[in-house]
Amino acid sequence: MKRYFLHLAYNGARYHGWQIQPDAISVQEELEKCLSLKLNEKISVTGCGRTDTGVHARNCYAHFDVEKPINNCEELVRRLNIFLPNDIVIYKCWEVEPDFHARFDAKSRTYRYYITQKKNPFHNHDAFYYHGNLDVELMQKAADILFEYTDFTSFSKLHTQVKTNNCKIMAARFFEENGLLVFEIKADRFLRNMVRSVVGTLLEVGRGKLTLEQFRGVIENKNRCSAGTSMPAHALFLENVEY
Question: Which among 111, 128, 215, 234 has the fewest CB atoms less than 10 Å away?
Answer without folding.
Answer: 234
